[in-house]
Amino acid sequence: MMKKLLLLMFFVVSLFFIIHPLNTSAQVVDETKLKTAQFDYEDYYQNKVMTYRGDSGITFISYSTKWNTVEKLKALETELLKNKHGEELKLLSTINIFPDYPAGQDVLGQYFAEYTYGSKSVSLSPNRKINLYGGDKYSTVESIASTMAHEYGHHFTFYHLFKREHLVPNKWKDSQYAQIRHMKKYGPFNQSPVPYKWDLSEILAEDYVELFGSSKAISTHMPMNSEIQSPFENKSIQQYWTEAIQEKGYRPEETIPLYLTDYKSSSLLSLQLTALNLGTYDTYLVAQDDEDKYLPILFDTFKGVMQVRKWYEGEKLGSKSSWLFSKDQNSGIVFKLIQHSEDGFNRGSERLKINLQNIEESKTSDAKLIEHLNLTKEEIEEKMLQEGIRQGVPYELIKAVVAESSNYEQFQNEQPKIDENGRIGIMGVKLTAEQAAAQNIDFESLKYSPLYNIEIGVKLLKEYFNDNTLPSMKNKNQKMLEHWYFALIAYRGFTEDTNPQKIDNFQHSVYKYIEDMIDRDLQELSYIEASQDNRVVKLKKKVYPLEETTESTSLYINNQKGYVYTDKGVLYNQPGGKALTSLPKYTPVLIRENALLKDGHLFYKVNTFNGQNGYIRAEYIKGGDVTIFSDVFQNEVVSAVGYLQLRGIIEGYGNGTFRPYQSLSREHAAKMLVQELQLTKDPTYKMMATDVNKDNLYYTQLAILEQYDIMGRGGKLRPKESLTREQMAAVLARAYSKVYKKAEQERVFKDVKKTSWSYNDINILAENKITVLNEYYRPYENVTRGQFALFLRRSAALK
């Protein structure tokens, strides 16, 4: 029976506190840490076997003949850098590897700390050093990885605690870190001297390994102090490091669910463990005796599975681990799951502590398991949104499928919900165990894990959408809700309840749900040709045209342009928060991040005109090539410019401006009018005006307005001249003569006589509220680009 005694072989950080107050010099040795410490190990081991300075800037020096090649030291550097690190790395200069144990037989590593401090700040000094011991015995990267991660954990945590808390180590008992860990409630922590495993610097280093360590470091690691919470059992620890590091990607992670779900008693026990929501990362199952007498061992590894329910039979295990299952040799077992993440914190489970003398108290029944697994509606919708964004499937569609398939239920009567047609769980996934296995889908997870059920359901929807053997809409686009029609049929199954000839078919119900959800009418698809033979639906046609479609509002991405689609646009300070301002229809927005879910509504963080930022509900916007011009500020002008941009009528300048106060030339006005009115030139028409060259960029538009008698009366078009306000009134009155209503009264303008040639046209504009000026019209002023955009938008709105 092979056992490896842990004894006192802690990853001791004999911390050499050489403290330099600002502008002074003093050396302090912490005697509680350095009873056997020596400062001259490098001098004692004079013969360096190998030296390597890596790209990291760290020098690796080996005094062990087992670490005798540059390749091995390079591999050690690679392993070091797989532990998460940041700006503190540059303060570490050297890692020494010694053949035996000069600091004591039980000391596997040391970290040497030096720092400067003042009344309000503490900072870690450069040229820090790590010593690794026992190099002749621990001669592989795998065997030394956990020790090195622990020692680097001291370097990392010293740097960040100094930076965040501004406390020297002998004051760390009063730190925020000690508070969130509730350390003062433990007697040993308050002793003097503090027992090794209760020293906060050791707890910090162990937390580092758990949260930031490499795959090799964590695969055989169990926190040395089993009496306090691990970082996966106390979310405040992860929140502390999220705030301390302030890097994107770091946020508290959900723990991995781990349960004992069954057991069998014999001379060596058999245990059934169930692990859920593992995701796609490799997951390590680590085990240790409950009294911490022996080193933890890597018990199992799960690769790329979402859920595991597995029996471990003591009699079939090797001698390395079977002793853990003996009641005679062991009072209990502790299991832990942990995953290494490339970005953000590692993810782990709470420790599962199994009392071998009373196993029943550690067992979780299926009913209790289901209670743990059930999600709230908000949690389900958040998963649907994130999975939809990840796989490019509209959230609206996923939500409707869930509502119509299961009413958000994964379980029913304390069992996985499976309907009479074999549809499973929240997404109503229709697969047999054999079909699931053929597609590498975990059938048990499909039944027991709501998160996995959503993931697989969305994946299948996407696969059916991409299936070219199915009929499709012309120019198929996954962002268009109606284009998922045939994927919905295939997902549900070619059965009677998906027959397009039935009014109340499944896909019709899905689209009706979406219409109610987004308050928009979708296109009717009642013309789909189909037949039914022995309850199996067959579709006849391959491609269906669909002119008008509805774009999903859940798949917009960062830096995508859009605009306010309705008159209900409101900018909020946060999702579902305080209203900052109303945004008129056609106001341009720039989306700044993926959709967020709050109180059942999707929101986007956006930038909009006049430097405003905030959040807007997704159903109020559409994607569109509309620019936020830096010099357009007035609400109605912003709206008018946005509308005309969408119609392709106007453009801005390359520097992001529109120049709304710049005078508008007659030829530019001609271009805008022709495009807004969608006028075309009679091929036989010949321009009569003599002041427009054929090489003029706007020759055709000018000719069209002359042809329609909108501009150019008198034989001249004067293309380069600025358009005056009275000329604009005449041009608009002619262009929209079938749209404007006739004036019911003769208004009085102080600067326009009733005998003026332009009075009637100006009066018509006032009657139709194209101009809202009451006393002065300013007829001889030039029209600006902003004014004409506004008048054109008001005129178009009357059509």
Distance between the termini: 90 Å
Strand content: 15-25%
Write down the overall mean pLDDT. 90
| Counted beta strands | 32
Rg, Å, rounded: 37 Å
pLDDT below 50 for ≥5 consecutive residues: which ranges? Answer: 1-38
Please state the structural category: alpha+beta
Q: What can you see in these coordinates?
A:
With 799 residues, this protein is an alpha+beta fold. It is built from 22 helices and 32 strands. Strands 25, 28, 29, 30, 31 and 32 form a 6-stranded antiparallel sheet that branches. A 5-stranded mixed sheet has the order 2-3-4-8-5, covered by helices on one side. Strands 11, 12, 14, 15 and 16 form a 5-stranded antiparallel sheet that branches. Mean pLDDT is 90; it is low at 1-38.
Brief summary:
The protein is α+β, with helices and mostly antiparallel strands. It is built from 22 helices and 32 strands. The strands form ten sheets. Strands 25, 28, 29, 30, 31 and 32 form a six-stranded antiparallel sheet that branches. A five-stranded mixed sheet has the order 2-3-4-8-5, covered by helices on one side. Strands 11, 12, 14, 15 and 16 form a five-stranded antiparallel sheet that branches.
Write the layout of secondary structure elements.
Elements lengths: L17 E4 L19 H4 L5 E4 L5 E4 L7 H13 L9 E6 L11 E4 L1 E4 L4 E3 L3 E5 L8 H25 L10 H5 L19 H13 L2 H4 L16 H11 L12 E7 L5 E6 L7 E7 L7 E6 L5 E6 L5 H4 L9 E8 L7 E2 L3 E4 L10 H8 L3 H15 L3 H11 L5 E2 L2 E2 L6 E2 L4 E2 L2 H6 L4 H6 L1 H17 L5 E2 L11 H8 L13 H13 L11 E4 L2 E4 L3 E2 L16 E4 L5 E3 L6 E4 L5 E4 L4 E3 L2 E7 L5 E5 L3 E3 L11 H12 L19 H12 L21 H9 L17 H11 L23 H9 L17 H13 L2
Helix pairs in contact: 2-3, 3-5, 10-14, 11-16, 14-15, 17-22, 18-19, 20-21
